[in-house]
Design a protein that fits this description.
EC number: 2.5.1.3
Order of helices and strands: EHEHEHEHEHEHEHEHH
Protein name: Thiamine-phosphate synthase
Organism: Planococcus shenhongbingii
Bound molecules: 4-methyl-5-hydroxyethylthiazole phosphate, 2-trifluoromethyl-5-methylene-5H-pyrimidin-4-ylideneamine, magnesium ion
Radius of gyration: 16 Å
Number of strands: 8
GO molecular function, one term: thiamine-phosphate diphosphorylase activity
Number of helices: 9
Pathway: Cofactor biosynthesis; thiamine diphosphate biosynthesis; thiamine phosphate from 4-amino-2-methyl-5-diphosphomethylpyrimidine and 4-methyl-5-(2-phosphoethyl)-thiazole: step 1/1
């Protein structure tokens, strides 16, 4: 299997509440056409899909990702990830313990863990995480209970101690600041609103790629 995060990964994350009223599957298809490298279904909030509607939506997202050979990751909901045979699951510190999740999903699925410190990063590695997400890096309105922006120092610190651990930056990332996350050593950038709410979604993904490639040269 190719390296999970061939640098720099554009990791698109979306739920039905992030698309500013546009058809979510159209948004995902456009992002895939633009060349995202990973997709995470993060269905949260009061008007989030549930039950059969969520299951149906998740299956449709998964098949779109399959058409573009992009890993399909489910946030939080292990049972949903299992039910639709997702490629992986992403859990936060308040979700099921990563060790338990790894045992449930098995060795071949992707396990991502949100971390906010070196200790949490170490625990994630010991729990069998394939990558960690760190943020919010910049200001974000997308996650109501987000911690205050931490900048890129945490990413640099984790990469220094664990150079082999893929680290994804998240929170307020746009084409204009993505290179800063990249030059701090991140293996990829996770993006919700800057892609999901872009005028032209595919071109916005291409803008991320172009700016990251340019930033990589620095
Ligand atoms: C899920 C999450 N975790 C930390 S910030 C964030 C939201 C990121 O959304 P956006 O890319 O729109 O700032
Ligand atoms: C809260 C989150 C933090 N990081 C990530 C990822 F980008 F996948 F690492 N996803 C999340 N849902
Ligand atoms: Mg969570």
């Amino acid at each position: 299997m190719s390296k999970l995060f061939d640098k720099p990964s554009i990791y698109f994350i979306m739920g039905t509440q992030n698309t500013a009223g546009r058809e979510p599957l159209m948004v995902l298809e456009q992002a895939l056409a633009g060349g995202i490298n990973h997709f995470q279904l993060r269905e949260k909030g009061s008007d989030a899909l549930t039950g059969d509607a969520l299951m149906k939506f998740a299956i449709e997202c998964k098949w779109l990702c399959r058409q573009y050979d992009v890993p399909f990751i489910v946030n939080d909901h292990i049972e949903l990830a299992q039910a639709v045979d997702a490629d992986g699951i992403h859990v936060g510190q308040q979700d099921a313990a990563a060790t338990k999740v790894r045992r449930i999903i098995g060795a071949d699925k992707i396990l991502g863990v949100s971390v906010h410190s070196l200790t949490e990063a170490k625990n994630a590695i010991d729990s069998g995480a394939d990558y960690v997400g760190m943020g919010p890096v910049f200001n974000t309105q997308t996650k109501e209970d987000a911690k205050s922006p931490a900048g890129v120092s945490g990413i640099a610190a984790v990469k220094k101690l664990h150079p082999e651990l893929p680290v994804i930056g998240i929170g307020g990332i746009t084409p204009d600041n993505a290179a800063r996350v990249w030059s701090a050593g991140a293996d990829g950038v996770a993006v919700i609103s800057s892609i999901a709410q872009a005028e032209n979604i595919a071109s916005q993904v291409i803008r991320f790629k172009t700016n990251l490639k340019a930033g990589a040269g620095k």
